[in-house]
Amino acid sequence: MKASFIQVSLFILISLPSLVLANKQNLPTLSHPTLANSQAQFEQGRKYYFGEGVEKNYKQAFELFKKSAEKDNMLAQHSLGFMYFKGDSVEQNNQQALKYFLQAANQGYAESQFNVGLIYVNGLGVAQDYSQAFDWFLKAAHQELPKAMRNIGQMYESGLGVHKDLELAKKWYQKAAEKGDADSQKKLLNF
């Protein structure tokens, strides 16, 4: 039984705080010394990805994310995972997406932990593995990520990767609902 309830909602970049936008004429190049810092490289890549103060350029964003990810920047690793997942300027590749999501997830990044769970629960480029998915969702849920809490509830409700337990399902839906998750709030109305 494939879990149709799991949403593939990726890419934390859209929810990062806005950065001061660079003037297009004063934009540093890849060789600029200020980009030696992995966070600066990530932030510059984000600007190129979204076209903030510069012309949108996925290839340039990818290169900057890659340089930053090589320095263990988990946001850049997550972003590369997303770009591979979506096929933004690179060939769509779920195994590469998983590789980069795992790098960030192993550093404790909840959004990447959630995405690793999504990949396993849906069998995207890997063997479908509900137990692995549950473990990754649980890691993200313990970091207060509401959509991960909801997915834990759904897995308990349907018995995917865990023994079916409606009491635990309700508990997790409640936690997600308390964090503002609208889907969990709706689910509790019919529980």
UniProtKB/TrEMBL annotation:
InterPro entries documented for this protein: Sel1-like (IPR006597), Sel1_AlgK (IPR050767), TPR-like_helical_dom_sf (IPR011990)
Keywords: Signal
Family annotation (SMART domains): SEL1
Signal sequence coordinates: 1-22
Pfam families hit by this protein: Sel1
Protein name: Sel1 repeat family protein
Organism: Acinetobacter sichuanensis
Lineage, highest ranks first: Bacteria, Pseudomonadati, Pseudomonadota, Gammaproteobacteria, Moraxellales
